[in-house]
Amino acid sequence: MAETPPARALPASALIVATDGFEQSELFKPQEALLAAGAEVTLASVTIEPIQGMEHDEKTRTITPHIILEDVHVDDYDALILPGGLINPDTLRMNPEAVEIVRAFRRAGKIIAAICHGPWMLVEADVIRGVTVTGWPSIRTDLRNAGAHVVDSEVVVDDNIITSRKPEDIPAFNDAILTALAALPERAAA
What we know:
Elements: E1 13-17, E2 22-23, H1 24-36, E3 40-45, E4 51-55, E5 58-63, E6 67-68, E7 79-82, H2 87-92, H3 96-107, E8 111-115, H4 120-124, E9 132-133, H5 140-145, E10 149-150, E11 155-158, E12 161-164, H6 170-182
Parallel strand pairs: 1-3, 1-7, 2-4, 3-6, 7-8, 8-12, 9-10
Antiparallel strand pairs: 4-5, 11-12
Helix pairs in contact: 1-6
């Protein structure tokens, strides 16, 4: 019996944008899934000082970003991941660099994945008009007011935008991200 060949590493690069108050599982679990698939993952934030994770309203792990928002070059990445948590996206949507990163990914037609309160960034960047999305129940009115069609589903994929509602949806969220990245054309060999 022939051995199954090893899985090919995912030739993709993802950018996670987060700051203090991110929901721990919504950053670490997608990061782990991407790394396990062989993708390169970069974390950008407002500072390169460690940022504080949360599990609901309790402080948990911290993580040190690789780069600051001002140093992000959208062309270097295939996907943008926006974890939730109440504080994280609420802070980032007031940051012009973070909002512009979301707009630039959308203009470039790249994958944008946001979970829980993360879709607030899509509202602030004004990139979901006419797009079907989901999110945490308390932000659904904001999503509708931004012109999105809002549904209650564990994961929604529409026009390169992937959204999910909550930490329990992470397996479906991760699968959707990995599927979208695997569907990208292979990069030319260096």
